[in-house]
Design a protein that fits this description.
Blueprint: E1 3-7, H1 15-26, E2 33-36, H2 42-51, E3 54-57, H3 63-80, E4 84-88, H4 90-103, E5 109-113, H5 125-137, E6 143-146, H6 149-158, E7 165-167, E8 187-191, H7 200-213, E9 218-222, H8 231-240, E10 247-251, H9 256-262, E11 265-268, H10 277-284, E12 289-292, H11 297-301, E13 306-308, H12 313-324, H13 328-345, H14 348-362, H15 364-367, H16 370-378
Parallel strand pairs: 1-2, 1-4, 2-3, 4-5, 5-6, 6-7, 8-9, 8-11, 9-10, 11-12, 12-13
Length: about 375
């Protein structure tokens, strides 16, 4: 089954972009097409070249550009005649519906929702507008994939109306095992772009409390905008009272495996998420996680880490202090349990099979015999 994947942007290395590339690589034999509304970063261009994938950019950078992108997408759909169009993120969902209409082909359009709605106020104005439009259009797609149960429930409460919805979590490649040492965890890492949704103010405030109680504790922050020359970051550090020499600001990181190996514990301080990739990635490398109770973070972590309320610096600080004080043998057991949970529940092979089965079940006439073959792996 050949799928055209439409995504809002491929400049960042967020959860949606990373999962799309993983899924496309896992189904490379079906020759998937990736179309970015806005642009594609050099890093992603290198990855798709390595995987032999077909990636294109519509260069839409304004509202008018998005309208024109619908016509451009329609021409691509006509030329390539994919079996399905999968739209990742809200803006792409809108343009995907327009593109299918412009193509004048009877191609099923699917949506892929990567965002929970724990805190709509943390979303940008543009994203909130696109969210409202997708609510009005939500009965039109052939089906909607949500990457977390929380996202499905909250979108239904928000007003999404579609009879063909499914939850398919993110999938992960197996990672070579590193020895789990009996150590005292003192290095806490956080990864994600500098955005109010990620709530770095809460993280830095909690980190300051931990540092006052445990001066040997250190913190590493990776993501776009998290650099020493950022006025916003400096303001948050000053407000929190966290010494600059206690936190390493790495900015954009291409070697995420290296980042995870440099930390003892991952922290997620977000106000809203869907399926937070960084949580499962860290766990796959044996790093316990402390996360706010957003999206499906609690379901991913279960008893291998700690879950705290969102926007609560004292609660986040207490969880980090608890981790610092943990017995080294207990830390080693948590590390092993975290890794085993990802390997047993979120393998990329299983997730890719579920995607194929869902699309083939809905677009049975386009899949032919592939539909029946795809059902067993997804059971």
């Amino acid at each position: 089954m050949r799928v055209l994947h439409l995504i809002t942007n491929m400049l960042a290395s967020g959860g949606a972009e990373v999962m799309l590339l993983r899924l496309a690589r896992a189904s490379a034999e079906d020759r998937p097409i990736i179309v970015s509304l806005m642009d594609v970063s050099d890093r992603h261009q290198a990855l798709v070249a390595e995987y032999g994938l077909d990636v294109r950019s519509l260069n839409a950078r304004s509202t008018a550009g998005l309208l024109g992108a619908g016509m451009k997408l329609g021409r691509i759909i006509r030329d390539e005649s994919p079996d399905a169009v999968m739209c990742w993120l809200y803006h792409a969902m809108i343009v995907g519906q327009l593109g299918a209409w412009h193509s004048r082909l009877d191609v099923p359009v699917y949506w892929n929702v990567r965002q929970s709605l724990d805190d709509i106020g943390s979303l940008s104005a543009s994203t909130r507008m696109a969210l409202r439009l997708t609510r009005l259009l939500s009965s039109r797609p052939a089906g909607i994939v949500f990457n977390s149960r929380r996202a499905l429930d909250l979108h239904r409460s928000y007003g999404y109306r579609n009879q063909n919805c499914i939850v398919i979590p993110n999938g992960f490649d197996p990672v070579p095992h590193a020895p789990v040492g009996h150590v005292t965890p003192t290095v806490f890492g956080i990864a994600g772009r500098l955005h109010r949704q990620k709530d770095y103010g809460t993280f830095f405030a909690a980190a300051a409390q931990v540092h006052r109680a445990h001066p040997d504790a250190r913190f590493i922050a990776a993501g776009a905008g998290l650099t020493p020359d950022s006025d916003a970051v400096r303001h948050m550090l000053d407000a929190a009272g966290l010494p600059a020499d206690a936190v390493e600001l790495r900015g954009n990181v291409s070697d995420m495996v290296g980042f995870y190996r440099d930390i003892d514990c991952l922290v997620l301080s977000s106000r809203t998420e869907g399926f937070p990739n960084v949580v499962a990635e860290a766990m796959s490398l044996g790093k316990p996680v402390i996360s706010t109770d957003v999206g499906d973070a609690a379901a991913i972590v279960e008893d291998t880490g700690f879950i705290v309320p969102a926007s609560d610096p004292p609660a986040l600080a207490e969880a980090m202090k608890r981790m610092v004080s943990i017995d080294p043998s207990r830390y080693a057991a948590m590390s092993r349990a975290a890794r085993q949970r990802i390997e047993s529940t979120y393998s990329l092979q299983h997730v890719a099979a579920r995607y194929r089965a869902f699309l083939c079940e809905t677009a049975r006439d386009r899949c032919g015999m592939a539909a029946g073959a795809a059902q067993n792996p997804a059971a």
